[in-house]
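I hope you will forgive my troubling you with a question about protein structure. I should value your view on which stretches of the chain appear to form regular backbone elements. Here, with my thanks, is the record as I have it:
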Amino acid sequence: MTATTPLDWDAATYGALPLPHRAWGRGVLDRLAPVDGETVLELGCGTGRDAAALLSEYPGCRVVGLDASPQMLAAAREALAPYGDRVVLREADLRRSFALEVPVEAAMSVATLHWLPDHATVFASVAAALRPGGRFVAEAGGAGQLENVHRARRLVEGVDEPADATHFADDVATRAALERAGFTDIAVRLRPDPLVLEERTLRPYLATVILGAVLRELPAEDREAYVDAVAGAMDAPVIDYVRLEFEARRG
């Protein structure tokens, strides 16, 4: 692991894994249906994977990408360099309010919102960043996600409930938070999407994608043993993803 801050990620390992995030990003782009000439805000732009797809498919669009991880942003700058001034990247801790200098026509997010415990703050910032009528399309981990991993962690840690940096909201709470932020035309749903991994991929996947925040709190010499223990306590090499998907429009 090469993460250097509490909010940083190992971008190289992350990008090499068999990520379902590509399909999740494809779904968000399809539902967003960008229009040439629009500027799209991306919350948690990561390595720039989804921004690159948007910019290549919609040559008249621009992207403003926000992420808290310096490693991810470095990877995104490299990946998105061919698009020149059509993309602006900013380091931002999305757990806190943020603001844009110029409002945008649309916003999207893939696999980020469950890392942010205060959705009310996030949604308010997105609403303020959007022009009236602007679209917000997102997906993230939803209620019920990672129950098998948490069950394994309870066995390994000997606790009733493991500490976790993620916030898996349900559809009812998400709709209410969007409404309070001033969004209308809201559609929200939970969709099970389990990922079956090969045994050789399970440990690096757990370490980089699932348990990264937990491992950063452990001494370096204890991390590998912890991941091995969690993997060994799982019933099968399956990540039981449940996706929270929504579309909304700023009123």
The longest helix spans residues 220-233.
